[in-house]
Amino acid sequence: MTGAEDETEARRLRTVMREVEDRIFDGKHKMYHVFRKFDKDGDGFVSYKDFESHLLANKINISE
Questions:
Q1: What are the boundaries of each domain within the chain?
Q2: Residue 58 contacts by C-beta under 8 Å, 6 or more apart in sequence?
Q3: Per-residue pLDDT for the chain (64 aa), expressed as one digit of tens each?
C-alpha cells in the first residue's frame, strides 16, 4: 500500500469505529469501552470473528 492508500484505509476504519461507538453506546465514550465490549473473553484481543459478529448484530454493514 502507498501512503495515500494507508491514509484512506485509516479514515475508513475511523469512520466505522465511530459508527460502532454511536450504535453501541449512548453518547461518546472512549474507544477502549468499545474494545472492552468486543473483547468477550477479556484476553486483550478481538478476533475478526468477534468484530464481525458485533458489526452484524448492530446492523453495521460493511464489506470485508
A1: 3-57
A2: 20, 23, 24
A3: 688 888 888 888 888 888 877 777 665 566 777 778 888 777 888 888 888 888 888 888 777 7
